[in-house]
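User: Here's a chain of 383 residues. Predict its fold as tokens.
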Amino acid sequence: MHRLGHPSYANLDEDLVRERAKALPEEGVPPEVLKVLPRLDGAQDKLQPQKAATPCDGMEPTLEAGQTFAAQRGRAIVAEGLSRQDANEIAVSALQNMTEEVMTKAEKEAAAAGQTLEIRTGNKFLDQFQPYYFAEAFPFCFKYATACPDVANTTKQQMEEQERQSRRKADAPKVGIEDWAAAMARRVETQFRRDWTFSFTVWNFLFRTMVNLQKNTYMYAVPDSTVKGNKRMLTNKEILDGGKEVAQKLHHGLYTDITGELKPVKGDLSKVPHVPGLSNAARMLLNNLECRARNIPGTHETRKTMRHQTHANRICYGTALFVTFSPSERDTTLMVRLARARQSDPAVLQDGSAKFQSRSKPELDVEYFRLSPEALAEDRGGG
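Assistant: Prediction complete.
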């Protein structure tokens, strides 16, 4: 790591390290370590070697530890979906779409000739920005294909509006994606509460809608001492070349880190502004992206604004305390206690768990992991 230039090893003297290593015993433990070990008796809880976000139980005598392990249930492994699409990937996609919009027809045809076509057999892709998308993508949540949002799609809005007018009442109000997403997040039906992907899909849909419908009033003006006023507007060709430059640097560029070294960007849009030698058009495009994304939840720019606010609070009021509560396995009854479902919901009536979806079950002061199987079954059955 010293030869590779790692900052933590910058002041390391390799000769001194080798000299000290020769003094270590070839077998056994160095006497300095044995001298410190007696002082650590009973200090396990004070050292807290476990991660603070997921604390483990403290040291226990052997007998009590064995009883604890004997009463704990076996852990299970379940299939879980994992989405690797983050705000950076969404911003990169938005940049590519904006670059394609300002391209001419000839440039689009030339670019399409060199693109890779990905074909997936057996899949029928759905248009996400149409009213019945959620009914088709989540048929178990929307049994009768109703209660879908009104989609703002400028290319097909008039045609879809005529079709929907023939199916809806004349006095029915329009429900946009913002109000609809807030209402769906508060649904108590079990098919919504137990769906693993519905909430994430709604958030992604809302994010894309906010990006697509946001108005752009940015002026692409750059300094120029050769014109009157020392400023001039960028041409469409310059803006297009700037978008291509940003896209190229995003995947193949090198940026300067805090140590002054050049490192690959590797698709991270937040590192592109630190690429040396960017043109004025490319920098104006990046400033425009930051400006437009600053008020959209979930973007790096929003997080940057939040960090500025918290830093201002620290300067004004002093360093704050940030506390995270992560219940251990024995405290997961809190999650069950906070879960809610209608008592008449068929999903909870069939498996007999309706009482655990109410306000008073389960009791928070009962350590269920210490109950015998007979007592646990009696509590679950008789309440």
